[in-house]
Design brief:
One of its GO terms (molecular function) is catalytic activity. The protein is flat and about 15 Å long. The protein starts with a helix and ends with a helix. The chain has two helices and no strands. By secondary structure, it is mainly α.
């Protein structure tokens, strides 16, 4: 599911967290 983590990405900073998790 990308919808749940996507919300957290926006809270932390989006692209920054997205790259680390992805």
């Amino acid at each position: 599911g990308q919808e749940v983590p996507h919300l957290h990405f926006h809270i932390f900073g989006g692209e920054k967290v997205g790259k680390m998790v992805s």
